[in-house]
Records
---
Amino acid sequence: MSEEIDQIENVESKANIETKSAKKSSSKEMDLAGLEFFYEKNKKAITYGGGAILAIVAIFSFYKFYWLPGQEQEASNESFYAQTYFEKDSFLVALNGGINVQSSEGQKTMMGFKDIAENYGSTKTGRVANYYAGVCLLRTGKFAEAIEYLEKYDVKDEMLAPTATGLIGDANMELNKMDEAVKFYLKAAEQSTNSFTTPYFLKKAAFAYEQKANYTEALATYERLKNEYPKSTEAREIDKYIARVKTLGNIQ
């Protein structure tokens, strides 16, 4: 009797397994049929979508690996001439270009930093040109325009980025906008904390506070410079400035 029961259970077990297997097979067939139906129904969209993706990838690759490096090289070549005149303090020529220079291909009319920034803004050299254009404008007394170019500079550099921000402070000082000057000097001091630009712009911020007759803040900023950057160049005569603002502000 026991053997008969075992045989019956084995038969039922095999039947269950076969049924489950048949269900799985049927489910797979339904899934495949569903995919085929979906593809047939949306074949055009899938084909066009795939083509669009390939086009985007091709455009991106062309831009990144061919067009952009070419633009960077062109911008670098143009910047060489403007940089040469900048280093000679010929700021108007460096800014506007327009004079003939000798290149490997013969004589050409050089671009100034303004044109380089405008024509090669997608490159790093083009973005750095905004900084140099701002400096040229600052040196030639065009302070409001200098601010416009310096604000366009967006290259992350430990020294140049805070310097650009601090120069916006200088331009505002020249425009007698002391509140703006203080704001940008403090921003420059914090933008890249180091022993060169930070104490330099803290000192400028403190001086701007003095021009506002805000001697309390001037004192606090000078003292911060002294305490945090005692070995900096700006800290060498800092006690003299501290004594001065204490006297002017009648601070004990």
---
Amino acid sequence: MKKEVQVDEKGFRKFSIRDSFAYAAGDFGCNMSFALKGTMAIFWTQFMQMDSILYAALLIVVQVWDAINDPLIGSIVDADRRKYKRNKFLTYIFIGSLGLIIGGALCFIPWRNAPEIAKIIIFICGYVIWDAFYTIANVPYGSLLSLISKEPADRASLSAWRSVGAMAGNILPMVILPIIIYDSNNNIVGERVFIAALLMGVLGFIAFQFMLRNTEIRVEETVTLNEKRPKFNVFKAIGNFMRNRPAVGATVAAMGMFLGMQGAATAVVVLFQSYFQNVKILGIVQLFAMLPIFLFTPLARKMVVKYGKKELSVIGSLCSVVACIAMIVLPITPDAKGLIIYVLCLFISSLGLGIYSTVSWAMMGDAIDYNEWKNGVREEGVTYSLHSFFRKLAQGIGPAIALVVMVALGYVEANEGSQTFEVALRMRYLVAGLYTFSAILMYVGLGLIYNLDKKKLTKMNEELDSARSKLETE
């Protein structure tokens, strides 16, 4: 006998774990494509033998595309007033998911002996195509959170489960890829990366389809507090974003998080190649470091209701700062003892990071509401796309700057997984320094800029509910 679906007072299916699983599947799909980005620098500098400074310059160039791509697609989504069978966000996500089937693999075409100009063209074209489809899927996906439910506890649950989806999407490549794509000499094998990227694109598409089939929209995305809706103005929307303290604070924190994760990604690989001399265990180490996020996720909903998202996140960022400083000063030697100390510091840092990451997307959902509260318009697409742009900027600029510093510290791409011990030792301190900088930036964004504490958030939600009720009765 088929179980009867429970509905709320407006006739929507009641919010349940089904919504959380579906939303988690969306970020799993995104990360099936995005997780390989951390492998790009090693692939292009070690396997493709591209000069590290040239690669860093090209990485910055493609961020110009990001600068145009994210806000442009966000504004297109916001300005789109057409009626879709289900929802415009879900439609854009479906289109993006189709392109991502092969989009990620285009960044890893293993033509090692290609002329230098051909390598440059392959990198730029592959990245631009992948990034376009990723943005078409990811920007509407992020905006969707504020439309699935308006309840703070539900949003906290969605954000927490999005983190679970992101982790699951990261764990598969994180643990398995180092074992598969590196040979016995700790060198990367490009053909294996290309095949892995294709398989991950297919898995991502399947995950997106599950999300699309199980998502219920309960909040009208065109809600506005103005009786007459003004013509959409992208420049005004960007100005609103820059005056939106919660959006700016959450964005600064996210940039800090990704400067550490993506900026240090290449240096971490070199650290395990040439310092600990076992790159195949890198995935296991990173998996262990992510355990705190899994531990906190089941508690996120209750703790948010009791303490508040901002309050918990600030405490978490302080934990990360302390752990990262410890990583600099403690004696992390290239033996088993040093590896254990490194893993313990990473574990504590990830505990703080886990607290923030499980509520980070709920904080952006609140920031979208904040814009409606202060400016009378929601502007989900632009608000989220600008947040996404700055995240991507950190993901691009971070590795580029890190590579330049690595070269200055003696890194030679032609040596592949056999850097000198002096260079490897410098990578040990560079990794710790990058993690510390990112943790401090996270604290600045969450503790000093983001201003929606539990009390203010309650006031905002009450006033928004009152204003929306008046509009519905008019």
---
Amino acid sequence: MKAEKQKNAADAPEDGNIDKIRDILFGSQSRDFERRFARMEERLSKEVSDMRDDTRKKLDALEEYIKSEVKSLTDRLVSEQNSRADAVKELSDELKDLSHNFDKKVTNLNEQAAKSESDLRQQILTQSKNLSDEIQKRHNDLLGSLERESSEIRDDKADRTALAELFTEMAMRLTNDFKLPDAD
């Protein structure tokens, strides 16, 4: 009976036994690492996507707000210029001095509108830069977090050389090729 077991053990391929042992010992840990990496990757992708969507929504909202404000200002300016131009035409014969003052006021309003538009553009540029900096900071934070977690996972995995020696010794014991040194 014992000789038959030894013969069956010798006939079975060693690679199959080693794969089975490796799967028994490390299969769940390997699958756990794979699941953790997959979850981390999904979470990172979702956070980046959410951040991108959120930023896009904010930029779209900001753009719409700015467009509506500029359109409102432009409409007001056009409307005001039109009404004043009509008033100038009606009063030009009688009030030449007032038309001259009115032209000065219109010029000042245009300068103020140009200055307001310039200030608004500067604010948009500043806000855009701040959003870009925030996105870069979040990207760097997420990248650092991913690198730390990857490093922790690498540090937690078993040493391959030690595992190879352990499996070699186990295989030799299973095949009765391993002899303990005699203690003299």
---
Amino acid sequence: MIEKLAIVAIGGNSLIEDPKQPGIARQWEAARKTCNHVARMVADGWHVVVTHGNGPQVGYILRRGEIAAKEGGIHDVPLDLVVADTQGSIGYMLQQGLDDALRRLGMNRTCATVITQMRVDADDPAFQKPSKPIGGFMTEEEARKFEAEGWQVMEDAGRGWRRVVASPIPKSVIEINAIQALMLSGYVVIACGGGGIPVVRQPDGSLRGVYAVIDKDRASALLALTLRADLLMISTGVEKVALNFNKPDQRLVDRMTLAEARQYMAEGHFGVGSMLPKIEAAVDFVQNGGPKAIITGPDFLVPALRGETGTWVVPE
């Protein structure tokens, strides 16, 4: 019987610590560092299912495709396959990093990545209003060129311009039975990478990928609720959530109730392309019966579990 289950959502950006040095060697370094902290959670008695983001990695794949297209003879890669590609590559890095870290702690646990599909509704309103940034940052001039080609673009939290696609709400995890069976057998599972591959159920019952991406934190909250997890841990680039971020009156938050979280969201404290999805996911998990959610940086996972840091989201 699993007594304590944590869903640990690792941000794709946290695997690229320095955007100026995004090479694979640096990604391995960041992945191994994060895996050391997750392994310590396992050693402390938590059963862990890991999810992860893939935003920067998707951007690099798209960029490679753009460059290759100029040479001719290279087919385009649809977005659902790009997400699947990143699930495999990042999952591999996390599998190896966790295996190494657990062995150093004297634990022999098998780690497995599940290529995960997430069912979405074909009539989700998000398809009419694309809002999820994908690909790399660019200038407004570059963005307008993509817009002329039929893309929708937006300014992303003051960091630059990006292309945007639909971000429908995930309704169910297609591979949930496999994830649960592996988890109950003692495996450390990596699932729902990049929010999962969005698919719709056809009238004949078959599944088909759609041109969209799912928010990783929202998918992690759904997975946590489906598995009845004891904790949703969202690992991101900061130790604590801040109000009035980057302003003279910035204030770090140690703990917020659901009512406070809703109030802060209504007041516009959190960036649409950065902290807001994490707060929304934490609220979704807790208001639907999850005991608690914690938002913190990868280096602070274990101290946050001890109540020493991080931002806790708790019921009323």
